[in-house]
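Tokens help. One example:
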Amino acid sequence: MNEEELHPLLVFTGSANRPLAERIVESIGIPLGAATITSFPDGETFVKIDENIRGRDVFIVQPTCPPTNHNIMELLIMIDAARRASAARVTAVIPFYGYARQDRKDRPRVAITAKLVANLLVAAGVNRVLTVDLHAQQIQGFFDIPVDHLYAAPVLYRYLATKGLSNLVVVSPDVGGIKLASGYSQMLDAGLALVVKRRVDAEHTEAQFVVGEVSERDVLIVDDLTETAGTVTSAARILKEMGARRIFAGISHAVLNPLGIKRLKDSCLEELIITNTVPVPSVEGVNVTVLDVAPLLGEAIKRIHTGQSVSSLFRVDGKTILL
């Protein structure tokens, strides 16, 4: 039996988060596909697939995190290269889907960029998308191809089960995240609260009041994404003022910039729990726990490849996760 018969599944990676891709193929038990990715002096990206992929089931791992535009373009070029090399199917594994916050016209004369990115992926030739914790679940409907939307919640749940948290309350740091927080509260058999905020500008938010009881209770703030950390740190501040005991934050995608890191250092968070969907930032002075989603993505890739259901990945300890 030749190598192609042994390994009809191939996983390639762009440059956005190679360590995650290496952990994914390790969990599957196959080598990482060979590809050359370089840039011309003018910044143009060059991609060459360095092995035969004709008739193979190809998965390309590339979160579209900063530098967002570069990583999206690199992903599109890799998809095109795979399609032109006669891959049987190309699946884009996008652990973090950039531009997801631009999912609607919330003011006049603006683009719906999340839909534009979906159009670009399909035009490049992708057959399927695998992603984690979309900022807005309706983005799945922007695609006319299958989208497998995974949750980081099972990974976070298993970690929190080891923490021995007592009298826990799950908190949404804003109104838009209440459904996510409600799902976590049911999964953890915890209370539910909401911080109502006011956005000052793109980098600043102001927590105004709390709906729910948090006094003398452990608190878990949950969100899908943080960049400037303004929402989570201002929520933590008002929760502490309301008498919360210990404050944790569980966030799927930590796309932190220098301002966000500074805010976290000055915050009252006891622990920041994140995943490795994007490259893990160095945050000295903050208690950061990084959870690995590679086994989750690896199992999903295997099931997609073999035509099995991925719905059991939404169950943990007999509970179905509905976020």
